[in-house]
Amino acid sequence: MFYRPEDGHGLPHNPFNAIVTPRPIGWISTRGADGSDNLAPYSFFNAVAYEPPQVMFASTSAKPDRDGTKDSVANIRDTGVFAVNIVAFAMRDVMNRTSGPWPRDTDEFADAGIAKSDCATIACARVQDAPATLECKLTQIVQLPGAANFVVFGEVTGVHMRDDCLVNGLFDVTTFNPLARLGYHDYSFVDAVFSLKRPES
């Protein structure tokens, strides 16, 4: 099968998200200029550089009360900071709850019953029990083609790792089984790893 996106795919559901998988989930916490906290998951998320460490996430839809974008991007525009919380398999249900289209004054931490703590290097809340959290300062927001497509880039200024996720000095993902986004309404998780040495090593 071949199709051009502008012509449509002719399938019951768009296969694009099912092709580009699995995708890590950035559980983005932000704080509004008014001090209100927000938490929302984004599956267009990844690390993009080592030194200095940098990450990105993309927001691809809008809310009526946010002038062409969503709460996360709007808050980051105002404050210049955000935190990326890593999602464990055990947190799948509360993560999903925070994906709802709630009003801008909703604190998703409180709504989903998620414990929060203050970040160390930025004025923002983080998911207290997340396996890891990356504290970030905004470097740039890039608008992509499309009505509400924005990519947010940030430099990591602080890293939290849960002690039980460190095994022999390594951050061991099998201790918490990170959640990954697939296509449609589907998810997966990591429960096994293997290593490959690069040819030059």
- Helix/strand-derived category reads mainly beta
Largest sheet: 7 strands, antiparallel
- Please identify the oligomeric state: single chain
Query: Helical amount among residues, as a percent range?
Result: 10-25%
The CATH superfamily is Electron Transport, Fmn-binding Protein, Chain A
Low-confidence stretches: none
Count of discrete domains: 1
Note the gap between the termini: 39 Å
| Percent of residues in beta strands | 35-45%
CATH class: Mainly Beta
What fold name goes in the CATH topology slot?
Pnp Oxidase, Chain A
Count of helical stretches:
4
GO molecular function, one term: FMN binding
Pfam families: Flavin_Reduct
Domain Flavin reductase like: 18-173
InterPro entries: Flavin_Rdtase-like_dom (IPR002563), Split_barrel_FMN-bd (IPR012349)
Q: Could you walk me through the main structural features you see in this protein, from its secondary elements to its overall organization?
A:
With 201 residues, the protein is mainly beta. The chain has one domain: Pnp Oxidase, Chain A. Helices cover 12% and strands 35% of the residues. It has four helices and 14 strands. A seven-stranded antiparallel β-sheet has the order 3-2-6-9-10-5-4, with helices on one face. It has a three-stranded antiparallel β-sheet with strand order 1-13-14, with no helix packed on it. A hairpin with a 5-residue loop joins strand 13 and strand 14. The longest helix has 9 residues. The protein is globular. Pfam families: Flavin_Reduct. InterPro entries: Flavin_Rdtase-like_dom (IPR002563), Split_barrel_FMN-bd (IPR012349). It comes from Cognatiyoonia koreensis. GO terms for molecular function: FMN binding; oxidoreductase activity, acting on the CH-NH group of donors, NAD or NADP as acceptor. This is NADH-FMN oxidoreductase RutF, flavin reductase (DIM6/NTAB) family.
